[in-house]
Structures are given as C-alpha cells and as structure tokens.
Write a structure and sequence with these properties.
- By secondary structure, the protein is α+β, with helices and mostly antiparallel strands.
- The chain is globular and about 55 Å long.
- α4 packs across α9.
C-alpha cells in the first residue's frame, strides 16, 4: 500500500495558464486539484515521488510508483473539448508511437501513464535531426480512427478555433493582425469543405510533446486528438522552433523551404499544409495576445505573414 501523501504543490505555471484561459472556472478546478490527485493516488495504490514543476500547462504532472515499485506518471488534467479524448487516442495507439496508458478516469481528467524521460524532449536535438525523428513518428501515429468513438472531427476543431479567433480578434492589440485573421478564417473554411481523408490525428504534435523513452527512442505525449486530414496535424509541427526560422537570414524562403520539406517527407499536399499552417499560426498568435505574451504573438504573426 502507498504511504502517507505529502503536500501537493500546484506549480505557478499551471495556476497562471489555467486562470488566464479559463477564469473563474479554472480557479474552481485548481482549488479541487490537490484533493482530486490525492484521491487517485489512493485509488490506484500509488506512492508520490514528486510533482513536476513547471509541469504541464493544463495538468498537474506527478512522478509516482505503483505497488510493484514500477515507475509511472499520474496526470491530472483540466477536461476541455481538446483534451477530453486523450485516453481514447492513447488506448487506440496502445503504445505504438505514443506513451502507454496504464489506467484512466476520463471523467475526472486523470490518467496513469508510462514513465518517459521528461527531461529529454525531442527539442533537445538539433533541428534537422528532430524534424527527421518527428516525421518518422507521425507515420506511426496517423492510423485509421478507432471505430464507434465520438472523437472530435476536424470540422469540430475548426469551429471551436474560429469562435476563439472571432473573440480574440476584438482585442485592441490584434487590430493590425485582422487582415491575417480574415485570410486564415477564409482559408480554413475552404480547406474544411474540401478535405478528403480521415486519420486519427495527434492534434498538438511538436518537439516539446515528444519525449525520449526506454522501449522506443521517442514517444509522443499530450495528444489533443481529432479525426481529419494529415496536413492539419503537420501544420503544428511546421510552426515548431519558429524563432529559429524568423531569426535566420532570408526568413520567408526558410519558411517556404520547411513547408516543402515536411510536405515531401510525409506525402502531404504543400498548399493544404500552407493553409493549415496559416490558420494555426494565427490561432497561436491570438491566444498569446489574449494572455499577454506579446513576443510569442508577434513571432507567430510574422511566421504567418511569410506564408
């Protein structure tokens, strides 16, 4: 049986991101977080080692070990439309290309996961090597969706994102970005209407969401799964390390070259990838503006402008 449970600190980053994005509802969830986590430590007979700080942006991450002393991770996350089906995707992948799900309480947003090397993200590799590993992993993750599940569709995700963009575009700091927002919304509508393939998508695939592992070189974590076309998923990877591209000589050409290389590597239509990258870049930018991260917003808007 597990021993006494120490005090569970909530990392400052988690408090800040949840309250910035979810206001009073987020504060109420944060108030229940220690008790919710403690209940699952007891329920699954886990012993807490430590809370990761800064940890996740929408979840409390705890290193634990099970009653057989095997290491694991307890993830207590805020349930949102994007995160609600994380367990569904992880169950379907069954450890192939992604972290292994050991147990789950989806209604509470609590997952027990295989322990990976959290201190070694794919981002620790040089960019060219990281992109090679990332595209190889996407080949494994893009499979047929699980049957008889209610995963969000790409159209659902676009509708949610569109509503958020419409809300954020009213922010005074977003005035200069409105032509890009309009273009992104129009492009997403056209792409959604003409999409002709359906895969299980990770939804938030970038170098920070891939960690070193023991049973495979690299495994994906933190999916925000949906079903739809691969170019949408690849667009998030195209935006990774945007600062290195924007800061390089000939940034517009570097951006176009990255898109071409990723499209060729995964047999994805380049123009569709360009369109989805524009949409996702503008979304990231306006999210950053809404939470006061002006430098991040400017970076993604500049990237979008080069598309």
């Amino acid at each position: 049986m597990s021993g006494p449970t120490p005090h569970l600190p909530v990392p400052t980053r988690l408090t800040n991101t949840v309250t910035a994005a979810h206001g009073d509802a987020g504060r109420r969830w944060l108030a229940t977080l220690p008790a919710r986590t403690t209940a699952h430590l007891t329920r699954w007979d886990l012993t807490l080692e430590r809370i990761l700080d800064p940890g996740g942006s929408l979840s409390l991450i705890a290193y634990v070990h099970r009653d057989d002393l095997s290491p694991a991770v307890l993830k207590t996350g805020l349930v949102t439309p994007e995160t609600a089906h994380e367990h569904t995707a992880l169950t379907h992948w069954a450890g192939r290309g992604a972290v292994l799900l050991l147990d789950a309480d989806p209604a509470e947003g609590v997952l027990l996961l295989e322990r990976l090397h959290g201190e070694i993200p794919l981002r620790s590799l040089a960019e060219s090597k990281a992109m090679l590993e990332a595209t190889s992993l996407l080949h494994r993750l893009w499979v047929e969706p699980p049957p008889e599940t209610e995963l969000p569709t790409l159209a659902d995700r676009v509708a949610d994102t569109t509503a958020r963009l419409e809300e954020h575009r009213a922010h005074p700091a977003a005035a200069a970005a409105r032509p890009l927002v309009d273009e992104a919304l129009a492009t997403a509508g056209t792409l959604t209407d003409s999409s002709a393939e359906t895969f299980l998508l990770h939804g938030d695939f970038h170098h920070g969401n891939v960690l070193a592992a023991d049973r495979a070189p690299w495994l994906a974590i933190d999916p925000r799964p949906l079903t739809g076309e691969r170019a949408y998923d690849l667009a998030r990877l195209a935006l990774d390390r945007a600062d290195t591209l924007i800061g390089s000589p000939g940034a517009p050409a570097a951006v176009r070259r990255r898109l071409q290389q990723l499209a060729d590597a995964l047999d994805v239509d380049r123009e569709r990838l360009r369109g989805w990258t524009l949409f996702r870049a503008v979304d990231l930018a306006l999210r950053a503006l809404a939470t006061g991260r002006r430098e991040d917003a400017e970076l993604h808007l500049e990237f979008a402008g080069h598309l």
